[in-house]
Write a structure and sequence with these properties.
This protein is mainly α. The protein has four helices and no strands. The chain has helices at residues 8-24, 29-45, 49-64, 69-79. The two termini are 13 Å apart.
Length: 85
């Protein structure tokens, strides 16, 4: 939500918290992919291209590991909206 509102710092704080919780608790699949996506989206709003690219690539790699085909399709549809910001 913060990214949509253009509040990059708030978006990054929330996204990093989500990512940390996933990594800390060995949560993967769709949740981890979306956590990376959220960090990537926050950096896109902040116009930090280096960090955006790093987390976009991590999101993409994580998305490839999503088990359910429908979940994977949904994830990549969402990931590909980042360039529209």
């Amino acid at each position: 939500m913060y990214a949509v509102l253009g509040q990059g710092e708030n978006a990054l704080q929330y996204a990093e918290s989500c990512l940390h919780r996933c990594l800390e608790n060995s949560i993967d699949d769709l949740d981890l992919a979306f956590a990376y996506e959220a960090v990537s989206r926050a950096y896109a709003v902040l116009d930090d291209q280096n960090m955006f690219k790093k987390y976009f690539d991590l999101a993409k790699d994580s998305g490839e590991k999503i088990a359910k085909a429908d979940d994977k399709k949904y994830f990549f549809a969402e990931l590909n909206t980042i360039s529209e910001l």
